[in-house]
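As agreed, record copied across for absentees:
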Amino acid sequence: MRIKEYFLRGPRLGLHFMLTSRALACLSPKARERRADYGRAILPLPPKSLEPGFEAPNIKDPAGLAELVREAARGARGGGRDAALLLPETCQKSFVLAFEGFPPRAGERREWILWRLRKQMPSLPEDVRLSYDAASNGSPRRVFASLARSSVIREYESLFASCGFKLRMIGLPILGLLNLLDRQGERDVLLVNIEADAVSLLALLDGQPALYRLKPFLAGKDLVPDVLAAAVAREIAGTKRFLEDREKRAVAAVWVRAGAGGDPAELLAGLKAGLELPVRRLDAPPSSGFNQREGHFLGPLIGAAS
């Protein structure tokens, strides 16, 4: 299997999984077709059982994680064996590229993107898998591109295959969150996804991705909310300045999903105190049937499955 060459709207499969360094979540859209709500499960991971990164190995306890995958699937009441997986963003290297001219053919597009990425990463490994999504219009054309090592992807494929599942789609949590935004009303904003081991930031200008940044400076640290909020606020402020210098544009607000554990409201309060921009909490829509805290954590999955 290869990573599919689309991100924002994938197939609607029986089960959608999300792995972080701390938790495994599973969502079943098909369960909602039979009932009033989504089937879902959220399970904590044993410490050190998963250490996400661009290089293999990521999975430290295959047997233990496989048991959790089976338990999560049972809890979500999903059907079928085709599944989607949102990988930790630290497993991939992602970029937003701008092209003044973009080839019409898929093969040519792939070569153009890889050529640009090799300029940014001269030591780009030969076994990388490329996935990308191109804006339908605009000048320049914006392309969200992501690279992952084949050896890392095979780890996750093997894990789920051992549980009887075939991964049909692999994606990024922050792009699932992007599907929750009103991109007509929220044209120039910064989307922030906070996990225990990293913070990712996706800037939207005119409703299209314009800049992606990943900062794994949180790795291996259990930061208290005020320290975590201060660290994330610095990254947001730095990204804002970069956009103003490079794009000559400013974002109007910050949308945040806090998946690092603890009370998201406490972290958001710290961000609001440290930033001049409006800070807004990104939750699942009320129609999804989740309580606020559960819908907040599951936001990437709900967006990816919608």
